[in-house]
From TrEMBL:
<dbReference type="InterPro" id="IPR002104">
    <property type="entry name" value="Integrase_catalytic"/>
</dbReference>
<dbReference type="Pfam" id="PF02899">
    <property type="entry name" value="Phage_int_SAM_1"/>
</dbReference>
<keyword id="KW-0229">DNA integration</keyword>
<dbReference type="InterPro" id="IPR050090">
    <property type="entry name" value="Tyrosine_recombinase_XerCD"/>
</dbReference>
<dbReference type="InterPro" id="IPR004107">
    <property type="entry name" value="Integrase_SAM-like_N"/>
</dbReference>
<feature type="domain" description="Tyr recombinase">
    <location>
        <begin position="109"/>
        <end position="277"/>
    </location>
</feature>
<dbReference type="GO" id="GO:0006310">
    <property type="term" value="P:DNA recombination"/>
</dbReference>
<dbReference type="InterPro" id="IPR010998">
    <property type="entry name" value="Integrase_recombinase_N"/>
</dbReference>
<keyword id="KW-0233">DNA recombination</keyword>
<dbReference type="InterPro" id="IPR013762">
    <property type="entry name" value="Integrase-like_cat_sf"/>
</dbReference>
<dbReference type="GO" id="GO:0015074">
    <property type="term" value="P:DNA integration"/>
</dbReference>
<dbReference type="InterPro" id="IPR044068">
    <property type="entry name" value="CB"/>
</dbReference>
<protein>
    <submittedName>
        <fullName>Integrase-recombinase protein</fullName>
    </submittedName>
</protein>
<keyword id="KW-0238">DNA-binding</keyword>
<dbReference type="Pfam" id="PF00589">
    <property type="entry name" value="Phage_integrase"/>
</dbReference>
<dbReference type="InterPro" id="IPR011010">
    <property type="entry name" value="DNA_brk_join_enz"/>
</dbReference>
<comment type="similarity">
    <text>Belongs to the 'phage' integrase family.</text>
</comment>
Length: 277
């Protein structure tokens, strides 16, 4: 095992947490990822093996164990992806190469989204909202489909706006470290510009709390619940569904929404067909 994986289990997990933090992961993501690796460590120890000596065969055996325990496919995929991130943090990606999963397909439940009337209701509420920040947040979630964790990590420099032509784009960084560029609608460019013009601080974060700190996920969720009576993920589902309904290629929808598995994107096909019908 590489020297980067030297030390006790606690040392290894602490090092992984630092790696995730440096990659800009949220506290909740770091806690979840480290919890997955701790469970993996405990399983290894039950087999008289320690994480510092882990091999590709150990990882494969763990996946088989999870499958034998009848863990859901989505759960196994999440664990697999976390271990993948972990070995990358050790600069040992070969440990995950060719590790097999019996079934990668997930039976997804159709996501809940806003219909056209509900979207218009959200927009009407936004017009009455005196907070330019809140309006910009709602429009960003609705017209880019970003996750709340991604929205909170956005910086002003990630935006490229041309208010005159009402065009723009934003660079979004996912929890897995991948980046994607999303074009911005005219409506969103206008709302973001209004919000930024009202800012008098020199903070790098795009969205700030009332205490002039980078806004937190829970703050956004609370604001949306209190002011708009909606969960942020419903806005994300609406963005994805709308693209599929308009006939945008699934690979493009997956890219814009940050889906690593196109099967996640395919879940929008049945509801799009039903809505058209």
């Amino acid at each position: 095992m590489d020297k980067k994986c030297a030390g006790t289990t606690k040392d290894v997990i602490d090092s992984f947490a630092v790696y995730l933090s440096e990659k800009g992961r949220s506290e909740n993501t770091i806690k979840t990822y480290c919890g997955v690796i701790l469970s993996f460590c405990n399983w290894l120890e039950s087999r008289d093996t320690i994480i510092t000596d882990v091999t590709k065969d150990d990882i494969q055996a763990y996946i088989h164990y999870l499958e034998a325990e009848k863990r859901s496919v989505s759960t196994i995929n999440k664990i697999f992806n976390t271990i993948n991130t972990f070995v990358k943090s050790l600069e040992l990606p070969e440990l995950i190469d060719s590790v097999q999963r019996t079934n990668k397909k997930i039976d997804y439940v159709a996501p809940d989204f806003l219909d056209e009337n509900e979207v218009q209701d959200i927009i009407k509420r936004a017009k009455k909202d005196p907070s330019k920040r809140n309006v910009a947040i709602v429009y960003t979630l609705l017209f880019t489909g970003v996750r709340v964790s991604e929205l909170c990590m956005l910086n002003k420099k990630d935006l490229k706006l041309n208010p005159k032509s009402q065009t723009g784009s934003v660079v979004v960084r996912a929890d897995n470290g991948n980046e994607r560029i999303i074009p911005l609608s005219k409506e969103l460019v206008a709302k973001l510009n209004d919000y930024l013009v009202s800012r008098t601080d020199d903070q790098e974060a795009l969205f700030l709390s009332n205490y002039q700190k980078r806004i937190a996920t829970r703050t956004v969720q609370h604001m949306l619940k209190q002011e708009y009576n909606i969960h942020p993920h419903k806005l994300r589902h609406t963005f994805c569904y709308d693209l599929v309904r308009k006939g945008v290629d699934l690979s493009i929808v997956a890219q814009l929404s940050g889906h690593s598995d196109i099967n996640v994107t395919k879940q929008y096909l049945p509801i799009a067909d039903d809505y058209v019908g």
